[in-house]
Amino acid sequence: MRAFPFLRALRALTVQLFHFIPPLLLLACAQAQQPSNSGTIVGEIRVARASFPEMRILVDIETRGARVATVYADAEGKFAFEDLPGNLYHIIIQQEGFRPVNYPVALNPSVQHVVYVRLELTPEEKSSGSQAKQRGVGGSNPAMVDQSSLLKNFPKDAKKHYEKATKLHDEGKRQEAIEHYEKALTIAPKMYFARNNLGSLYLENQRFGEAEVEFRKVIAENQADASAYFNLANVCLLTKRFDEASDFVHQGLTREPNSALGHFLMGSVMLQKGNRTEAEKQLRSALNQDPGLANAHLALVNLYMQQRRNGDAVQELSTFLKQSPDSGFAPQARELLKKLQSQPNAPR
Q1: CATH number at residue 66
Q2: pTM of the predicted model, to two decimals?
Q3: Domain total for the chain?
Q4: pLDDT tens digit sequence for 266-319
Q5: What is the tens place of the pLDDT at every residue in 100-134?
Q6: I need a surface site. Which of 19, 58, 260, 319 has the fewest CB within 10 A?
Q7: 62: which residues sit within 8 A by CB, 6+ positions away?
């Protein structure tokens, strides 16, 4: 399931010195402008109620049941997977003496290039009877399950259309992907992860009403999944229904309180509502959870430009350009930074 695919940027970052930059444009970079965009998943493994295993920990990453890459964690339990296209991935760990880990990670490089995850290894409980090992899902959302296992519960024809749709979606063939998702859902209306992808495609194509209908149906099928609430919040934000957007972000954060994206969305909503203090707090929370969330720095630029806090704006622009020098917004950000630094007594 793809989580959090967002609408293309509404317009380029303005270079007017005190012109307010609407946060809507900061929700994503256009996929059409960055067709080869890729991201990184950085992880840290912690061990509960036991010492760190002497044998190096092997970490796999899969998507739709197919292995993508394998790495070893270092002595501190840290690992990374680089140059990944946007998709839903599963981080798999099967370490002897510990419960298996199957952790879902949604990567959308147009929103954030680096996703940070923390995994916990728990010692396997010994029992007298024979016990089949089951893959559990680690993390903050126990209702999320292995998507490849879910597919087994649906008719063969629905699965065929779903897999074709995801392939077309990855290739950027959006209209064809929409058609196959719709066919899958005609056969299997309760395939909520296909519905989430379909809603995301509607959102990318600015079909807001249809996107909202699909995301609401996703919530009806899987109320524990925070991503559908964040997607609904994004629809409301883009259609300027800020109170509703705030409510949906809140519900998503209730389910996933450490979501950097959730705090980023809340900060964007608060900025639109004129609550600058809360906006700054939420955007800082987003960066605390994910220092690589470059768009949060741009949203803070919006805020500081409104308040004429030019020194703080310079700092955020500088950080953004260090993190994302090749972003579609980088040329305009450099020009704005240059203008700010050319003012008398401006920070360098």
Answers
A1: 2.60.40.10
A2: 0.58
A3: 2
A4: 999 998 899 999 999 999 999 988 887 888 888 898 889 888 898 999 999 999
A5: 888 888 777 766 677 888 888 888 765 444 333 33
A6: 19
A7: 68, 89, 90, 92
